From TrEMBL:
<keyword id="KW-0040">ANK repeat</keyword>
<dbReference type="Pfam" id="PF00023">
    <property type="entry name" value="Ank"/>
</dbReference>
<keyword id="KW-0677">Repeat</keyword>
<feature type="repeat" description="ANK">
    <location>
        <begin position="16"/>
        <end position="48"/>
    </location>
</feature>
<feature type="repeat" description="ANK">
    <location>
        <begin position="82"/>
        <end position="114"/>
    </location>
</feature>
<protein>
    <submittedName>
        <fullName>Uncharacterized protein</fullName>
    </submittedName>
</protein>
<dbReference type="InterPro" id="IPR002110">
    <property type="entry name" value="Ankyrin_rpt"/>
</dbReference>
<feature type="repeat" description="ANK">
    <location>
        <begin position="49"/>
        <end position="81"/>
    </location>
</feature>
<dbReference type="InterPro" id="IPR036770">
    <property type="entry name" value="Ankyrin_rpt-contain_sf"/>
</dbReference>
<dbReference type="Pfam" id="PF12796">
    <property type="entry name" value="Ank_2"/>
</dbReference>
């Protein structure tokens, strides 16, 4: 899938667009992420779908990987091609610790997911602290 001795360095993409950093984030390898970032890997390099290392680590709930990327200044608002942000995908998948890390880092809790033309949705923290993600047109999340 990728060549660790790639002549272009730690951030060199594989044929499918996955970089070593993306692979480490996908698997939750926080120490590998830190090593790759120290070597100059692009923390925001996206694959074909628009997913970044931060996105994929939140998708899987790899909290230490999320923290490592946030500490390195990864873009918290980088959305995939459908408009889903790391916070949105963490909320959708029920990864509370990843959600908390993103919110603590200042992620936009009102970012909407662009599901279809005219559609939308978002992430809200209710007064009771409960986090809700919704798709517009599927009902009011406050109900």
């Amino acid at each position: 899938m990728y060549d660790t001795d790639h002549p272009h360095g730690a951030g060199a993409p594989a044929l499918d667009g996955w970089t070593p950093l993306y692979i480490a984030a996908n698997n939750g390898h926080a120490e590998v992420i830190r090593a790759l970032l120290r070597a100059g890997a692009n923390k925001d390099a996206a694959i074909k779908t628009g997913a970044t290392p931060l996105y994929i680590s939140t998708y899987h709930g790899h909290v230490e990987a999320v923290r490592a990327l946030l500490q390195a200044g990864a873009n918290k608002e980088a959305a995939d091609k459908d408009g889903a942000t790391p916070l949105y995908i963490a909320a959708q998948n029920g990864h509370v610790e990843a959600v908390a890390a993103l919110l603590a880092a200042g992620a936009n809790k009102e970012a909407a997911f662009k599901v279809r033309p005219g559609g939308g949705g978002g992430v809200v923290v209710r007064r009771d602290g409960f986090l809700v993600a919704w798709q517009e047109g599927l009902g009011d999340p406050a109900r």
